[in-house]
Amino acid sequence: MGEREAVISLSKVTAELGGRPVLRGIDLTVHRGEVVALLGANGSGKSTAIRSVIGQVPTTGGGIQIFGTPRRRFKDWARVGYVPQRTTAAGGVPATVTEVVSSGRLSRARFGLMRKADREAVTRALELVGMADRAKDSVDALSGGQHQRVLIARALAAEPELLIMDEPMAGVDLASQEILAATLRTQVAAGASVLLVLHELGPLEPLIDRAVVLRDGCVLHDGPPPKALGQHALPGHDHVHPHTHAAAEPIRTGLLS
Ligand SMILES: Nc1ncnc2c1ncn2[C@@H]1O[C@H](COP(=O)(O)OP(=O)(O)OP(=O)(O)O)[C@@H](O)[C@H]1O
User: Fold this and answer.
1) Does the Cβ of 223 fall within 6 Å of ligand 1?
2) φ and ψ of 17, to 5 deg
3) Quick check: CB of 241 below 6 Å from ligand 1?
4) Which atom of ligand 1 is nearest to the CA of 40?
5) Of 26, 88, 99, 210, which sees the most CB atoms within 10 A?
6) CB of 52 closer than 6 A to ligand 1?
7) Does 134 sit in the ligand 1 pocket, CB within 6 Å?
8) Residues 6+ apart with CB under 8 A from 239
């Protein structure tokens, strides 16, 4: 693979939440153009690890670099698209689909003004996730899968080089899962780098270059995505997945038990 540029690099990162160590010396690198899945049981520290990258969790040790710049000095956040875990993003404020996606473009809009190019980028992002026909709808009126597509469109609106996503497939219906997989494929083909928290590889499996598996705040595995070990092999697996069309579903991968 040679010396490819690291777009994200964590070195011996430690973090505590509520006085309890949650990250206990994490090493994690995403190279340019790579798709890295962050796997592990509930509570293993996956969300905390990616939230430390975007500065939402203070670290107690180690180093984090984004595009080669120490995180504390990094300012070019328009290059980074972040899709939070949907449960944490669901607010009570009604907004239209366009408003939510436009908020993702603000980092690119000069002087905070949405120009024609910005509005076009918002429309393109909505088209990518198949939500252009719902542009004027309230996000309250959307299904879980559609809501997730809007959050991804919001991240794509700034045309980021790096996408960081926390469980983008959780609680998403199969049709939306297929659209999200296709959207991600397009982004990767265009050169985007991706770090995403997943519970199962599912329909994204063909896109994943490397998997990093956490257990109890430590890296347990860093290498090829683990092969299927049977459904829901993970200890502590308590997420609800849409299994209504079992026959039509892609093979599920239970991640290292
Ligand atoms: N704000 C907080 N205060 C105290 N402890 C927290 C806080 N947020 C998370 N934790 C704890 O930190 C640990 C790691 O949480 P984290 O959300 O990073 O795990 P995860 O691997 O993403 O799990 P999940 O699959 O459930 O999202 C868990 O034990 C969790 O209970």
Assistant:
1) no
2) -130, 130
3) no
4) 21
5) 26
6) no
7) no
8) 42, 167, 170, 171, 199
Least confident residue range of 58-62, 109-113, 209-213, 229-233: 229-233
pLDDT digits 0-9 by tens, 27-42 = 999 999 999 999 999 9
142-176 confidence digits (pLDDT tens): 888 898 899 999 999 988 999 999 988 888 888 88
pLDDT one-digit tens code per residue, 74-122: 989 889 988 888 754 455 566 889 988 888 888 887 766 778 989 999 9
Nearest of 97, 115, 96 to residue 106 by alpha carbon = 115
6-89+161-248 CATH fold: Rossmann fold (3.40.50)
Chain position carrying tokens 């798709």 = 35
CA distance linking residue 177 with residue 157, whole number of Å: 19
The alpha carbon torsion through 134, 135, 141, 146 (nearest 10 deg) reads 70
The side-by-side arrangement of strands in the sheet containing 218-223 is 80-83, 162-166, 193-197, 35-40, 210-215, 218-223
pTM over 0.80: yes
Give the SS3 label for residue 184: helix
Beta-carbon neighbour count of residue 236 at 10 Å?
10
Q: Would you list the domain boundaries of the chain?
A: 6-89+161-248
